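U., I forgot to send this yesterday:
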Amino acid sequence: MWLIWGLSSYPFALLEWSLKCFGLSTFGFNVTSKVVDEEQNRLYEQGVVEFGVESVLFLPISVASVVNLWAFVKGIMDVLIYGRLEEFFVQIFISGFVVVNSWVIYEGMVLRKDRGKMPLKITLASIATAMAIYLLSTLIMFP
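Result:
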């Protein structure tokens, strides 16, 4: 839960504060329906996170999850190909920890087929943003 709180509320609060300081218009948040139907109640009782509402707040957590999954897979590949576990152990451990804690997000993005899955628009935007971050970091680190 800390991942969802930290990666969605703080960046948007910083952006809101920055826009307000510069006198620009700020975001408005839409009021969502609080009506719970039987399927939502069943998912809640099973402890499944509901991603069905299209919200910009899901973008930062899904981008962070995709970036960490890519870092974990890349780290495992480097260890298997080059055999440098001593150099990459801490990085692989940290990204693996985040990957395990982000399983709910991966499930919402790819595995779920019900109404509670993450909207396709958010999934594609997060994958595109993660790829842009990866390519930009590659260009900066290895010119």
